[in-house]
Specification:
The structure is a single chain. With 208 residues, the protein is of the alpha+beta class. The chain is 28% helix and 30% strand. It has six helices and nine strands. Strands 1, 2, 3, 4, 5, 6, 7, 8 and 9 form a nine-stranded antiparallel β-sheet that branches. InterPro entries: GyrI-like, GyrI-like_CCH_Lin2189-like, Reg_factor_effector_dom_sf.
Length: 208
């Protein structure tokens, strides 16, 4: 039976349209960092190389190698950690050219350093990519977080962030970072902006 994150991990990926508290466990990711406007071509290219690696892992059994502990699964969605440069924080309005980002795709727990190396080798052989060497593999454990589902254009996210900030204030919590995480449940190339579904998440801690 195929492992589907939408069903098995609904608490992490299918939240309600209102803020809620959740604890994020340790997770493994392919990731790549960058700076600038996500509407630029470079951003799309970086997304492409992440998916190439993610599917290289997913398809290994069909390429003649089955990793230890492998199971059928649905590839995880694209995620992004967003921040601003010092210059960007000083501005009254958002300048997307001053955005700092880490985009990433989660990997199943069975993925090891050896599997990662094989994935890189497979992508290099099949279709070399200019950003391949910029991708790294890392483990994150966000722990206590506040999240909610945002439906609509990305530019309308501040409305949801206001709700999250109010929830944090009312529940004796505080953010532990100025960064925030986004999980993209919709393909922006195929879904109209009004129907885009995005999980928004802040890392927080309790105030003593």
């Amino acid at each position: 039976m195929k492992y589907e994150w939408r069903k098995q991990e609904k608490n992490l990926y299918i939240p309600k349209q209102k803020p809620e508290l959740v604890t994020i466990p340790e997770q493994k990711f392919f990731l790549i960092k960058g700076k600038g406007n996500p509407n630029e071509h470079e951003f799309a290219e970086k997304i492409g190389v992440l998916y190439s690696l993610a599917y290289a892992v997913r398809m290994m059994p069909k390429q003649g190698y089955t990793p230890d502990g492998y199971y059928e699964y649905t590839v995880y969605p694209l995620e992004g950690i967003w921040d601003l440069t010092e210059k960007g924080r000083e501005l009254d309005t958002l300048n997307k050219d001053e955005l700092l980002y880490t985009i990433m795709i989660r990997q199943p727990d069975f993925v090891t350093t050896e599997i990662v190396e094989r994935a890189f080798e497979n992508v290099e052989k099949k279709k070399p990519h200019p950003f391949l060497n910029d991708v790294t593999f890392d483990i994150f454990q966000d722990g206590l977080s506040v999240q909610m589902l945002h439906i609509g254009p990305y530019d309308d996210e501040p409305k949801s962030f206001e709700l999250m900030n109010e929830f944090i204030k009312n529940n004796n919590l505080e953010r532990t970072s100025l960064q925030h995480r986004e999980i993209y449940l919709s393909d922006f190339r195929k879904v109209e902006p009004a129907k885009l579904k995005t999980v928004l998440r802040y890392k927080v801690k309790s105030i003593e």
